[in-house]
């Protein structure tokens, strides 16, 4: 109980450390605020948390619709949840830069471009792409399905080549984006983890008093959870069973940060973060998020774990699969690792193991596009690539281990 209460306090430290390194030049909310005709659109960008996602990105185009067009959209879909609306609006954010000039000079007269909806991993197939076509007579149209097209009206703001805001005549529509969405708060975390490769960790969460409940009650305010894959979790079970009841709970709570971090944020932020196990006054049970390009590692003084894939990344909830159990210094001692080993060969191979993880985990960080061009990343493909790279990683780690044994 003591723990649950402190968890709900704002974790300013973790917020500060990561956000500071993330600020970009633009602020879509204040840009649109200068154009009151887009106030409804602007309001919903904030309500759906898309504004933050737009501000964090570079090389992006926002297709804004004015208040009458937003009213028409909301009237046409009376029961639309905020989560479905988020998908629909994320279709209006192209992960490429299109100023008015470029729109009128499309090679071949049309372009297919990826959107934040595609990047969310919720778009089936290529439902998250928008087709831009430049018809003769200079009329440019945008469409996300065969059902309808919206016309280019005017350029609202251009910050080349970071952010372009363009007005289109009506909201884009697409059956996939409008489909009902399970609210993240209703996501059954343990069921999700169990289904996607973390069954053992999920089992411990459900079986440990207060653990599952604490994770669940933090989702609304933002939660980033890390579940160790089966191959890491199973050998750890004897050590887990050895912990006291308090220790077990703390270990599980150590695998989540009470702040939402997208893949993109983790890739661009570095720093010490609090976890659900942290006692705010002691600032204990913290971990260090460190990244090097596409690889994100989580460091305790005992463990260095790598993010291998994404189970869900939908503000306010993100769950990532990691290759090792996070062992806090509060419960475990660092492995004895003094040996400036006599055989230099051994060192070299040992150092090669994390390298292997590095290149594979780059592939395994779905659904957010790594760069401005925005790779399509539907969830299935993301899962598959995660599964593949985990396999590759493990076999490479095994090979490295074998090499060490041979040398020794
Ligand atoms: C575009 O973004 C980059 C990186 O944040 C920044 O250095 C540059 O000043 C921005 N360009 C403009 C025109 O704001
Ligand atoms: C963007 O601007 C809005 C309104 O001007 C402001 O409330 C908000 O804090 C700003 N966001 C950031 C990240 O600076
Ligand atoms: C995009 O739309 C244009 C005009 O309707 C069409 O000719 C083109 O084939 C479409 N492109 C794709 C990839 O759907
Ligand atoms: C989550 O799902 C599992 C089984 O799939 C179930 O036992 C558990 O009660 C569910 N938890 C919640 C909070 O609904
Ligand atoms: C469990 O704890 C005992 C006593 O502290 C220790 O000797 C033993 O090695 C531990 N077992 C594991 C698997 O950590
Ligand atoms: C992280 O935890 C350690 C050990 O409990 C503590 O000494 C340290 O001050 C913490 N660091 C931060 C930045 O909170």
From TrEMBL:
Position of the signal peptide: 1-25
Domain FAS1 per the UniProt entry, residue ranges: 25-172, 185-326
Keyword Lipoprotein attributed: yes
Keywords: Cell membrane, Glycoprotein, GPI-anchor, Lipoprotein, Membrane, Proteoglycan, Repeat, Signal, Transmembrane, Transmembrane helix
Biased segments, Low complexity type: 359-377
Region spans: Disordered: 335-382
Subcellular location: Cell membrane
Family, per entry: Belongs to the fasciclin-like AGP family.
UniProt name for this protein: FAS1 domain-containing protein
């Amino acid at each position: 109980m003591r723990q649950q209460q402190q968890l709900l306090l704002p974790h300013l430290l973790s917020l500060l450390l990561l956000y500071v390194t993330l600020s970009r030049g633009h602020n879509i909310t204040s840009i649109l605020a200068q154009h009151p005709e887009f106030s409804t659109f602007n309001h919903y960008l904030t309500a759906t948390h898309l504004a933050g996602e737009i501000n964090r990105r570079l090389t992006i185009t926002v297709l804004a619709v004015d208040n009458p067009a937003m009213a028409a959209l909301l009237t046409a879909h009376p029961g639309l949840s905020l989560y479905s609306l988020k998908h629909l609006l994320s279709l209006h954010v192209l992960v490429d830069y299109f100023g008015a000039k470029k729109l009128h000079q499309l090679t071949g007269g049309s372009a297919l471009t990826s959107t934040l909806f595609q990047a969310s991993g919720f778009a089936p197939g290529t439902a998250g792409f928008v087709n831009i076509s430049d018809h003769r007579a200079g009329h440019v149209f945008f469409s996300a399905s065969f059902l309808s097209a919206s016309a280019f009206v005017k350029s609202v703001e251009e910050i080349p080549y970071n952010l372009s805001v363009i007005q289109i005549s009506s909201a884009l529509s697409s059956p996939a984006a409008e489909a009902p969405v399970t609210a993240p708060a209703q996501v059954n975390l343990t069921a999700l983890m169990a289904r996607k490769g973390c069954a053992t960790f999920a089992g411990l969460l459900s079986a440990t008093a207060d653990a599952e409940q604490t994770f669940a009650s933090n989702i609304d305010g933002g939660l980033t959870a890390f579940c160790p894959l089966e191959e890491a979790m199973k050998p750890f079970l004897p050590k887990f069973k050895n912990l006291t009841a308090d220790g077990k709970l703390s270990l599980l709570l150590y695998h989540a940060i009470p702040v939402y971090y997208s893949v993109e944020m983790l890739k661009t932020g570095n720093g010490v973060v609090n976890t659900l196990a942290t006692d705010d006054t002691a600032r204990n049970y913290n971990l260090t998020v460190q990244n090097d390009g596409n690889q994100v590692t989580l460091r305790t003084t005992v463990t260095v774990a790598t993010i291998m894939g994404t189970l869900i990344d939908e503000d306010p909830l993100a769950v990532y699969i990691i290759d090792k159990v996070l062992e806090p210094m509060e419960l475990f001692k660092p492995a004895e690792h003094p040996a400036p080993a006599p055989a230099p060969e051994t060192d070299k191979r040992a150092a090669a193991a994390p390298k292997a993880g590095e290149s594979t985990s780059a592939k395994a960080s779905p659904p957010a596009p790594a760069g401005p061009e925005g790779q399509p990343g539907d969830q299935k493909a993301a899962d598959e690539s995660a599964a593949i790279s985990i396999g590759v990683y493990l076999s490479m780690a095994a090979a490295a281990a074998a090499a060490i044994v041979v040398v020794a």
